[in-house]
């Protein structure tokens, strides 16, 4: 006798469609295409900034066809975070220049850093994009991924680190942009020829720089119901206002005695 006595249930009449991976959306400045590409790996490991009790280090680089992700780790002899998953690099509207800051400087003068807010855009930006994300760790070691778009131009680029709260002054490390560009050619596509995502007949409307899919609205909206006029109540005559209402209780409070 089976422990699970209930047999398999029949599929519903209208099953939910199976989830499927569609073709790449073609916006490499938003995030790394980790579901579509196997990146090339550059095993570059080096300290980027250090103090007596804290070290910020590069553990390696993942190179995608049009972007780069730096694997950055922070090591400390003192408590870093109660929740390591949050990360130590924060994009704020008003940057905290005493906190951990990272940035890059291209040979042509273009730059990007964590001191500015980087919001994913539906349109191609005209400046480099840098975005940091915490990857977890422990109370004394936290990993991060630093996303950078586009690929650096040929020549030396600089990776800048600063953390004044931990006595790490601005530190610059030179990286070979030409080697990064060459490695991008080794990144491999996983699923060539995937079909594009279908919109299922839903119209696309633009709100600012973002594209939103909304249900099809009727060409002409039905008229709204008009409010009905409320009957006006007639006010009682002035002389009747001083008279007690019929059936109303008489006042029971007696006048105070004169002292």
Structural class: mainly beta
CATH topology type of the domain at 37-188: Immunoglobulin-like
CATH architecture descriptor text of the domain at 37-188: Sandwich
As residue ranges, the low-confidence spans are 201-219
- Mean pLDDT across the residues is 80
CATH level 1 name of the domain at 37-188: Mainly Beta
Characterize the overall form.
extended
Radius of gyration: 33 Å
For the termini, the CA-CA separation is 98 Å
Topology, number of strands: 14
> Main sheet, how many strands, which sense, barrel?
6 strands, antiparallel
Helix share of residues?
under 10%
Order of helices and strands: EEEEEEEEEEEHEEEH
Summed up, the helix count is: 2
- Beta fraction of the residues? 25-35%
What this model shows, in words?
- The chain is mainly β.
- It has a domain at 37-188: Sandwich (Immunoglobulin-like).
- It is built from two helices and 14 strands; from the N terminus they run βββββββββββαβββα.
- It has helices at 177-184, 238-241; strands at residues 37-38, 40-42, 46-50, 54-63, 68-76, 101-105, 111-113, 129-138, 141-149, 156-163, 168-176, 188-189, 204-207, 210-213.
- The N and C termini lie far apart (98 Å).
- 20% of the residues are buried.
- The model is unreliable at 201-219 (pLDDT under 50).
């Amino acid at each position: 006798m089976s422990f699970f006595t209930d047999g398999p249930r029949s599929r519903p009449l209208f099953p939910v469609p199976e989830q499927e991976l569609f073709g790449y959306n073609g916006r490499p400045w938003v995030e790394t295409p980790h579901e579509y590409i196997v990146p090339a790996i550059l095993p570059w490991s080096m300290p980027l900034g250090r103090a007596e009790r804290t070290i910020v280090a590069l553990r390696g680089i993942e190179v995608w066809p049009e972007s780069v992700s730096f694997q950055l780790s922070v090591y400390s002899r003192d408590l870093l975070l109660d929740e390591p998953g949050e990360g130590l690099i924060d994009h704020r509207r008003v940057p905290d220049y005493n906190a951990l800051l990272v940035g890059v400087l291209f040979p042509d003068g273009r730059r990007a850093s964590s001191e500015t807010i980087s919001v994913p855009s539906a349109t191609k930006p005209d400046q480099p994009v840098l975005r940091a994300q915490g990857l977890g760790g422990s109370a004394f070691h936290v990993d991060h991924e630093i996303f950078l778009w586009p690929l650096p131009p040929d020549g030396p680029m600089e990776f800048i680190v600063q953390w004044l709260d931990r006595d790490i002054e601005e530190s610059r490390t030179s990286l070979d942009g030409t080697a990064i560009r060459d490695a991008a050619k080794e990144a491999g596509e996983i699923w060539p020829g995937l079909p594009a995502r279908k919109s299922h007949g839903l119209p696309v409307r633009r709100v600012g720089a973002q594209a939103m899919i909304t249900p099809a609205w009727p060409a002409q909206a039905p008229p709204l119901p008009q409010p009905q006029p409320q009957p006006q109540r007639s006010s009682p005559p002035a002389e009747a206002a001083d008279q007690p209402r019929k059936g109303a209780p008489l006042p029971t409070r007696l006048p105070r005695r004169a002292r």
